[in-house]
Amino acid sequence: MGVTAARATWVSLGEGSTPLVRAPRLSEALGLDLHVKCEGLNPTGSFKDRGMAVAVERAADAGVHTVVCASTGNTAASAATYAARAGLRAVVLTPAGATASAKRAQAHAAGATVLEIRGSFDDALRLCRELGQRDGFRLVNSVNPDRLDGQRSVVGELLAELGEAPDVIALPYGGGGNVTAIARGCAEAGIEPALVVGEAAERPTTFATAIRIGDPAHRASVEALVDAGRLTVVTLSEEELGDAWRRLVREEGVFCEPASAAGVAALARLELRGTAVAIVTGHGLKDTGAVDASSARVVDATVDAVLEVLR
Predict the structure, then answer these.
(1) Which of 17, 91, 255, 305 keeps 20 to 30 A from 282, CA to CA?
(2) For the chain, how big is the Rg over CA atoms in Å?
(3) How far is Cα 160 from Cα 157, in angstroms, rounded to an integer?
(4) How far is CA 96 from the centre of its chain?
(5) Which residues contact 293 (CB under 8 A, 6 or more apart)?
(6) What is the pLDDT of residues 199-233, one digit of tens each?
(7) Contact residues for 244 (Cβ-Cβ < 8 A; gap 6+)
(8) How far apart are the C-alpha atoms of 48 and 76, rounded to whole Å?
């Protein structure tokens, strides 16, 4: 019943095998038996590692010397890390000032050439497509089918962990590559859960930086899934995204970056029943800038001072 994707071997960093945990408080609130797939526990902190391991290994096997990607952050961190593992050069293009600092730090630490362009993610992807056509270069964004081949492995995992097919799978919608991969994984496993994605209404400017993508690369695939009755797209306000993000960590202890809560936010808008899996795509430490820590208070080093705050 599970899906066996082609897996990387010598460049693997142990991606996959992430926890599936039940969310009892949110289950009660949403009227679902909700489980959360914690993809932020992949090696670089996001779901991107599943596909990147495959894409980079195949690029290396093909004699490529440089992998290139456009990124809002997570792809950059993953591409840089797996390129380092494979002994390849990584070139990353990001929109200037539009990515979380922790993700840029990961890419820099792994030795990638990181360029911030005066433009949007869509401009960055256009440039990377052109670079990827040159000899010795390989584009490793999700438009590369090797990425989707690796990412679909999450379906087999959640089936093994859950012990049955869920009624619903929910996840964020930025570029659309992940839901495309998951739909393929479901088809190969012979299951047809309802697929739900949450996208930001304010795509180009949303505080959920990982899905700050104006023109989804896999829009046609997403629209085809909608037309086939396989997928529901929910457009979310910034308030809805923020509420789901805070509830995940405060009610369930799952700290994710804001974009990763989009699937849960989408479920909150729909009246669905049964067993649901929300794929939470990135760890909260990937975007600590989204957390308001200004409420921290300084007190005297006495028990009385602490108790005064707690009253």
Answers:
(1) 91
(2) 19
(3) 5
(4) 20
(5) none
(6) 999 999 999 989 998 899 999 999 999 999 999 99
(7) 261, 262, 264, 265, 268
(8) 9
Judgement on whether residues 169 and 282 belong to the same structural domain of the protein: yes
User: What's the CA gap between 211 and 17, in Å, rounded?
Assistant: 24
**In total, how many domains does the chain have?**
2
Distance (Å, whole) CA 184 – CA 168: 15
What ranges in 4-68 are assigned the alpha helix state H? Answer: 24-30, 48-61
Q: pLDDT digits over 126-157, tens only? A: 999 999 999 999 999 999 999 999 999 999 99
* Segments forming the whole domain that contains residue 68: 48-145
pTM of the model: 0.91
| Tokens coding 282 | 């990135």
Per-residue pLDDT of the chain (311 residues; tens, 9 = 90+): 344 444 557 899 999 999 999 999 999 999 999 999 999 999 999 999 999 999 999 999 999 999 999 988 899 999 999 999 999 999 999 988 878 888 999 999 999 999 999 999 889 999 999 999 999 999 999 999 999 999 999 999 999 999 999 999 999 999 999 999 999 999 999 999 999 999 999 999 999 989 998 899 999 999 999 999 999 999 999 999 999 999 999 999 999 999 999 999 999 999 999 999 999 999 999 998 888 766 678 999 999 999 999 98
- CA–CA gap between residue 199 and residue 41 (Å, rounded): 22
Residue 178's domain is classified under what CATH number? 3.40.50.1100
How far, in Å, CA of 117 to CA of 95, rounded? 5
Other CB atoms within 10 Å distance of the CB of residue 276: 28
DSSP 214-283: SS-TTHHHHHHHHHTTSEEEEEE-HHHHHHHHHHHHHHH---B-GGGGHHHHHHHHS---SEEEEEE-BB
Query: What's the token pair of residue 246?
Result: 């805070």
Return phi, psi of residue 138, to 5°.
-140, 125
- Note whether 78 and 172 are same-domain residues: no
Question: Do residues 199 and 236 lie in contact, with contact meaning Cβ atoms separated by under 8 Å?
Answer: yes
